[in-house]
Model the fold of this input.
Amino acid sequence: MTREFSKHFPLRKGRTHEAFGANAKSMAFALAGQLRGPVLWIREAWLADQINPSGFGDYVDPAQVLVVKGKEQTDVLAAAEESLRSGAVVLTVIELSKPIGLTAGRRLQLAAEVGKSTGLCLIADGMGSNAAETRWQCEPLFDQSDSTLQRWQLKKNKSGTLTSWDVRWDAKTHRIIVVSKTGE
Done:
């Protein structure tokens, strides 16, 4: 099961992916932690919530995360496209508040391909683009002894199987650990 997971995570470079669900941001931080490099996090300025360095410090060095705020979603998409095309960061996280069309999604894919970089769009459920390489649903799992336990489910995969894994973050090794399901 772990070998199968390693075919999917870290996410494929040169492509843009999507994540949704209560733990989508955790997936973004885990990905940033594994890629180990500068991250550009792009969001609309009007969004009230913020990412907190003390909350994601176990995943990635806060000094490696630069937050950019656009006035509206078109500004966010333009900044994301430039970031992906430049290849200057290992990961571009794009928070989207509205669905994007096939043209905008394809532009992000082409930019990621040129820059050989990875893009991750954080979306609401049901808001995905047909251009996305993969789409992940990320939800927490209750475990008294492990607050990082999650279920990541592939809902869309242009290159293969749809499946799910129970995972947890190991802060010491900066890795996602696949957790065996009960009874396996």
Observations:
- The chain has one domain: 2-135.
